[in-house]
Amino acid sequence: MRSCLLLAVAILLQSGSLSAATATDWTVSYSPVHVVNGSPVVIRVNTPKPVRSLAGDWLGHQLAFSLDPHTKTWFALAGASLETKPGSYPLQLHAETTAGQGLSFEKKIAVAHQRYPRVLLKVPGRYTAPSPEEQRQIDQDKKIKDEAFKTLSADREWEGSFAAPAEAPISDVFGVQRVFNGSVQSTHQGLDFRVPAGTPVAAVNRGQVILARSLFFEGNCVVIDHGQGLLSLYLHLSKFLVKEGDTVEKHQQIGLSGGTGRATGPHLHLAVRWQGVYLNPQILLGLRLP
Ligand SMILES: [Zn+2]
């Protein structure tokens, strides 16, 4: 009887010390809770002690964490490319305390498989069988884009949740496997808004315009650098309202919609590129961010 009591006391003491440990443990949460290939993810972290910096690594990408002063929670954007195979991938966290002590933590984040539909589309023949001259322009465009994607701001320019670039129904979603003119296959790496030509298009967040020019496939195209490797791209515009080098605020008009480039008709194509991979804009627009 007495030993039973002692055991009970021992268990109580142990559970007491366990809950004390839990209160000073790492907590990691993420949104969306159900992560699929192609999805952006916002990761929130509370560290066991106050830290002056937090860095992370997930799926081979470096994550830059910022501290939300209101909740004292660290947050970072991350993402799983369309090619990510289903599985559980470790998120590595490294922090430095205000006293200079290094802290590390690991948590696995599961990525589920999303099946994307396949559609057949018709476009003018030059977009599937370009002439040598058009091919030269396509090659030149690639160089222009590669250059633009190289010079990115390491600092976070975006702030708060992302805003839709237009108030309009979605006409095509991200990830669709498209077959143009029965031959050329390409993945739809953006989100299409059904807007008539001439509709104002707004920046989804704050950033710097790193590209505003006419390209063969993209048509008149604006690319905004939001910092930390995050870009937003606006395609097929009829008119530019910004130029390269401009700083833009969230909701600022950057152009008018149109149907320039490889488009089946007037619409706005919004793409989100993060550290070299295209992510589902619809999920990014739905995330609540500090
Ligand atoms: Zn599109």
Largest sheet: 8 strands, antiparallel
Please give the number of β-strands. 22
Cofactors, ions, other ligands: zinc ion
Instruction: Tell me, briefly, the overall form.
Output: globular
Distance between the termini: 55 Å
Count of alpha and pi helical runs: 3
Low-confidence stretches: 1-23
The percent range for strand residues is 35-45%
Assembly state here? single chain
Mean pLDDT across every amino acid position: 92
Protein described:
- This protein has helices spanning 2-23, 132-150, 281-286, and strands at 27-31, 40-46, 51-58, 61-64, 66-68, 73-79, 87-97, 102-111, 118-121, 170-172, 177-180, 184-187, 191-193, 200-202, 207-215, 219-227, 230-237, 239-240, 247-248, 253-256, 268-274, 277-279.
- With 290 residues, it is an alpha+beta fold.
- A hairpin with a 3-residue loop joins strand 15 (207-215) and strand 16 (219-227).
- The longest helix has 22 residues, at 2-23.
- The relative contact order is 0.15.
- Residues 1-23 have low confidence and may be disordered.
- Zinc ion (ZN) binds next to loops.
Question: Key features?
Answer:
single chain, 16% helix, alpha+beta, eight-stranded antiparallel sheet, four-stranded antiparallel sheet
Task: Write a brief structural summary.
The protein has 290 residues and is an alpha+beta fold. It has helices spanning 2-23, 132-150, 281-286; strands spanning 27-31, 40-46, 51-58, 61-64, 66-68, 73-79, 87-97, 102-111, 118-121, 170-172, 177-180, 184-187, 191-193, 200-202, 207-215, 219-227, 230-237, 239-240, 247-248, 253-256, 268-274, 277-279. Strands 10, 13, 15, 16, 17, 19, 21 and 22 form an eight-stranded antiparallel β-sheet that branches.
